[in-house]
Specification:
It contains 14 helices and 19 strands. The protein has about 500 residues and is α/β, with parallel strands linked by helices. The protein folds into 3 domains: about 5-85 and about 260-340 and about 450-495, FAD/NAD(P)-binding domain; about 140-155 and about 345-435, Polyamine Oxidase, Chain A, domain 2 (Alpha-Beta Complex), CATH 3.90.660; about 160-245. Strands 1, 2, 8, 9, 10, 11 and 19 form a 7-stranded mixed sheet that branches. A 7-stranded mixed sheet has the order 6-5-14-15-16-13-17. It starts with a helix and ends with a helix.
């Protein structure tokens, strides 16, 4: 027997104190945003095999499945990949087991932390020398510059006190300076009063007096197709969310960031293991068809699933390859056709010899050249071998769409040896990882292009008949992994509260 609405909300509040029920999940008739359902002319009724089919075994899909099961629904999760987790992916075959994406768990990630605790997983403090805090050797316009020399260097484009700001901090710091969203609620980015910032980010920065050389260096770390292709509101909102909890929320030990002991991929595995029905892998969805209130989900291997409801957490741009009957039209169709995900490619190597001992420079490189960043992974144990990766994102990563993995390795090794001769012969190939090269992934995370926040921002949560959309691209308050949890919760509530 399914739980009633009141009991579900009480249980949700008790399990995760302080979580917000998204605005789109109210039960007022005027607040419901749904397309008209398809009514079949056939007289023979179609039977569902499950109450809900959840498409996608990432965090959003699995979280929605857990919530629905707790409310008495029979749920079947299917996943196109041969693994669980979506963009949460621990690279267990790479020394140090790095995270391909979905790396750090913030103190504000209430839903995620509650799930980690509920499933008995352990969190730990990552090495402070890794990630955003690692030291960089800068190579700008072919010149190697240390962090100590940067402030006085002739290539530093900043002025006054800002000259002490290091290049890898340009985008996050300068974008957030005088942020109009500062100290505002996390959903304010969707309000019409902020539409004036839904313009190309480089245009916004120029209006703030940022010079061209600074903008060029900021472009190194942007995941969008370029500063001109991302909305200023996308970046303002991104750093607003990131900074919202800074200095306000922390774990019990005072730390603001954690990771899951053994790898973050243990979380989606534990979530899947908690479900009554096994997750079905290698089920690439190619079509949805709704008749008589039942949604048929068709997969590339010829299998079919039928449910009274579907939660679809497929990345929005991947939906361009999926058919809908009845067809999706209007603003939702435009969003599917036009929205995109951030681009990146990771090229992982085993480091056979510490090349930095040969040339006497810092191991990690941040550049304005074609490789952008090359970092040495923090060793988990003293006896572990060194591993490194080239991380290229945004416009520079576009060329890799045309390459095989061997060609990617050849290109990176060649460019790296040109920039840093000491690396030649010191690297052993491990793997190429790219969400953008994965047909199920589309990219790292959704980014809003100029004009899209105004046009699509309040349309992303619109259901199509009995198909409910989830995924971090539909989140309002949060981004990243917690955004995925938020979206899965909202999609589950759309079914539970409006049944």
């Amino acid at each position: 027997m399914k739980t009633n609405r009141r009991k579900f909300i009480q249980g949700l509040a008790g399990a995760s104190a302080g979580l917000l029920v998204p605005i789109s999940c109210t039960t007022k008739e005027e607040d419901k945003i749904v397309d008209a359902p398809y009514i079949s002319k056939k007289s023979k009724p179609i039977k569902a095999t499950h109450d809900v089919i959840v498409v996608g075994a990432g965090l959003s899909g699995l979280h929605s499945a857990m919530l629905l099961e707790e409310s008495g629904y029979d749920v079947q999760v299917i996943e196109g990949r041969q693994r669980l987790g979506g963009r949460v992916y621990t690279l267990n075959d790479v020394p140090g087991k790095p995270e391909a994406a979905g790396e750090y768990i913030g103190a504000s990630y209430a839903r995620m932390i509650n799930t980690v605790d509920k499933l008995g997983l352990d969190l730990y403090n990552p090495d402070a020398s890794g990630g955003p805090n690692r030291p960089w050797l800068y190579n700008i316009q072919g010149n190697y510059i240390t962090a100590d020399n940067w402030e006085a260097h002739k290539l530093n484009p900043l002025e006054g006190e800002e000259r002490s700001l290091l290049p890898h901090r340009f985008l996050s710091t300068i974008s957030h300076k005088d942020n109009p969203l500062q100290d505002k609620p996390l959903d304010d980015w969707l309000k019409p009063e902020y539409h004036k910032y839904d313009i190309p980010h480089d245009q916004y920065l120029r209006s703030k007096g940022v010079n061209e050389e600074t903008i060029k260096l900021m472009n190194v770390v942007i995941h969008a197709g370029g500063m001109h292709k991302t909305s200023a509101m996308n970046e303002l909102r991104r750093y607003h969310v990131n900074s919202h909890a800074n200095g306000k929320l922390a774990f019990g030990d005072g730390k603001e960031w954690k990771m899951i002991k053994g790898g973050n991929s243990l979380l989606p595995k534990a979530m899947a293991d908690s479900l009554k029905n096994d997750v079905h892998l290698a089920k690439t969805v190619v079509g949805f068809k709704e008749e008589d209130g039942i949604v048929q989900v068709s997969c590339a291997d010829g299998s079919e699933y039928k449910g009274k409801h579907v939660i679809c957490s497929i990345p929005i741009s991947v939906l361009r390859n999926v058919t809908f009957e009845p067809h999706i039209t209007g603003i939702t169709k435009e969003a599917i056709d036009q929205m995109d995900y951030g681009l990146s490619v990771q090229v992982h190597f085993l480091i056979k010899e510490p090349y930095w001992e040969q040339d006497g420079m810092d191991a990690n490189m941040w550049t304005d050249g074609p490789l952008e960043r090359f970092a040495v992974r923090t060793k988990r144990a003293k006896g572990d071998p060194y591993a490194g990766l080239a991380f290229i994102n945004g416009p520079e990563s576009l060329k890799f769409r045309l390459m095989t993995d061997d060609q990617v390795f050849n290109y990176v090794e060649q460019k790296l040896a040109e920039m840093r001769p000491s690396t030649k012969g010191k690297l052993e190939r491990l793997m190429v990882q790219s969400c953008e090269r994965d047909i199920h992934g589309a990219g790292d995370w959704v980014y809003w292009q100029p004009g899209q926040v105004k046009k699509f921002g309040n349309e992303m949560r619109r259901s199509h008949g009995n198909i409910h959309f989830a995924g971090e691209h539909t989140a309002i308050m949060q981004r990243g992994m917690e955004g995925a949890f938020e979206s899965g919760e909202r999609a589950a509530l759309d079914i539970i509260l409006n049944a």
